[in-house]
Amino acid sequence: MLAGVHPSLSSATPFLLGAKVQKKLTSSSGFTLVELLVVIAIIGVLIALLLPAVQQAREAARRMQCTNNLKQLGLAMHNYHDTYGKLPPMYIQLVPSTDNIGHWSWSAFILPFLEQGNIYDAIQPTKLTPSVSITANKQIFQNVNNSFRCPSAPGPDFHDAAVDPGYAIADSGGANTGLGLSNYVASVNIANVRQKKASDGRTGTTGNIGPFYRDSNTGFRDFTDGLSNTFLVGERAWTKGGVRMSAGTLYAVRDADAKGPSAQDSGNTAWNQGVVTIAGSVRYPMNVVLTAPNSERNNAFSSQHAGGCQFLFGDGSCHFVADTVDLNNDGAWTPNSVLERLVGMADGDVVGEY
Question: DUF1559 domain location, by residue (predicted)?
């Protein structure tokens, strides 16, 4: 008993002291509202600081994969050249040349050199027309082939035949089947994409001054400007700035016509067809905005990488080319520019900085 304390109070003291201690412990646990808001604010700041870095790291990884894809295409083309003494043709003009049966393109011919001989053997580009082949191999034609897809440029697995009949070929029953999507197209010209070879190394209005054209048989001997100074393949995105671009087709092209498939603005009608589904030019700057339906601007190269596009060069290397690179192009050679010189394989001019 505590001295000088009434017995009843003395017996209650331990309980009172315990209640005070428990109250003190209870009141000191947890966060106050202010503390909670401060913690949330700190977390928000950290996320704001780290998220761009995470996004940049992811894009860097996607861009590296795109680089690897292009290098693998380059290796396949070099192995094709070692085997046949020439690069694969831009496309083979079939006879009869009814356009909706399709024409085999460069991407089909390099399949065995991409360790995809099973696809090549199934579609039989040396024995069947694309129309006959797609009848038996629709799934193969419409499957995603990651060797031809840039991970930074998402899009559908294949072109919708109902929306874009120019990106489809007719099967043996006459029904259009949409072709698979490719983000890589052959580099061919300084003017609009053409079918045939140019009359000389500078006249893009008469034909393609690059290494690819109809039934082309270009050898490395023809690159008098040097393999390291000439584009082979460049990028083309599915969309750019919310507007659909002319992303390429896999294995075949519908129409041998050099015109189209002219890209459309959002909401416009179907695209036309043409060899631009498998090839590109620098008639217009990279990543140019499409302003009208059936625009020739869809000849351009484009990508979802910030600030430019990646290109495969003749020596098998891959380089990122900024969309601010020198380009002074009216479709003719004079005055020429860095980007034009990178397309021409035998123009005789020094490329310059890019």
Answer: 55-327
Q: Helix, strand or coil for residue 60? A: helix
The domain total for the chain is 1
Contact between 167 and 156 (Cβ < 8 Å): no
Q: Give me the mean pLDDT over the 229-244 stretch.
A: 88
Could you tell me the CA-to-CA distances from 75 to 72, 155, 216, 232, 326 in Å, in that order?
Answer: 5, 26, 19, 12, 28
Q: What is the pLDDT of residues 254-292, one digit of tens each?
A: 865 544 444 443 333 344 446 788 999 998 899 987 766
Entry pTM: 0.82
Task: Name the amino acid, one letter, at 319.
Answer: H
pLDDT digits (tens, 9 = 90+) for 238-251: 887 777 777 899 99
Residue 315 lies in a domain: yes
Q: What would you measure as the largest C-alpha separation in the chain, in angstroms?
A: 121
Q: Considering the domain boundaries, does residue 24 fall inside one?
A: no
Domain that holds residue 311: 66-343
CA distances from 145 to 98, 140, 264, 274, 330 (A): 27, 9, 25, 22, 36
Place of tokens 């202010």: 34
The continuous run of DSSP H or E covering 14 comes out as helix 7-28
| Distances from the Cα of 171 to the Cα of 96, 153, 300, angstroms | 16, 29, 30
With respect to residue 35, please indicate whether it lies within any of the assigned structural domains: no
Whether the CB-CB separation of 256 and 273 falls below 8 Å is answered with: no
Buried b (16+ CB within 10 A) or exposed e, 91-122: bbebeeeebbbbbbbbbbbbbbbbeeeebbee
Confidence of residue 226 (pLDDT cuts 50, 70, 90): very high
CA–CA dist 36, 40 (Å, integer): 6
Q: Is residue 94 a part of any domain in this protein?
A: yes
CA distances to 93, 129, 177, 180 from 96, rounded to whole Å, are 9, 10, 20, 24
> Taking the mean position of all CA atoms in its chain, how far away is CA 275?
17
Q: Is 322 helix (H, G, I), strand (E, B) or coil?
A: strand
Look at 101 and 178; give whichever has higher pLDDT: 178
- Beta bridge partners of residue 308, listed in sequence order: 322
